[in-house]
Amino acid sequence: MINVKKNNIETRLADAREELAGVEKFPDPEFVGIIKELGFRCELCARCCTREFNDHVFLLDVDLAVIRQINPDFVTPAPYYEFCDQRGRFYVSGYALKTKPDGSCIFLENKRCKIYDRRPSICRVYPYMLHREADDSGKVDWRQISGLNEHGSYYSELEDSECEAIARETRAYEEAYLRQMIGFFEAVETHFQKNGLRHVQSIYDRRMREFLKGKCELEVFVYYKGGFEKYNLKPNTD
């Protein structure tokens, strides 16, 4: 949770807007062609439903509404809080699904999802993606699939209509995610300006160290539907 690449709100807001513009302009035929060439097929290994393979399941606002109907206690502030003000309060762009002690998704049972028909958006499109990401060498470029050759099977025959549907749904998710991030950065910027607040990295780091040692709770402001919900996060003292 301590690793924060950038803390300048204006810079991160500009980056998110630029990323959204890039996603919107990415050529449909190119994306569909990549999906067809990869020919990915899920083999129901459920590796993607574990913390070992995927860090967390981020929830869009529409996903959060569904999960809260199922069980409101199954969500928690997403990790890697983006900002911490001088009063030691954290700010994060949304919620994530909780995990079990073994690191698997709270809804995973016998390698099957208990809410498959109502699963979150990211679970519906995974392992597909459409965003810029650094590879192992640090080169930043467009990435279209996660965990390549680490799960599932490849080079299966996929119908054109199936590839087109995957491309549409993946693009829709990426755009919705970026719009939520843009809304979050705008809300933080307005909140900070209105209340004389600023991000302080040293306080961020100190509070996180205390929290991870079980010495304090964290007051986290979670972005949801254009505003913030306060969440008091207790440390894991097991």
Automatic annotation (TrEMBL):
What InterPro entries does the entry give? Answer: Puta_zinc/iron-chelating_dom
Q: Name one Pfam family in it.
A: CxxCxxCC
State the PANTHER family in the record. PUTATIVE-RELATED (PTHR35866), YKGJ FAMILY CYSTEINE CLUSTER PROTEIN (PTHR35866:SF1)
Tell me what this protein is called.
Fe-S oxidoreductase
Query: What taxonomic lineage is listed for the species of origin?
Result: Archaea, Methanobacteriati, Methanobacteriota, Stenosarchaea group, Methanomicrobia
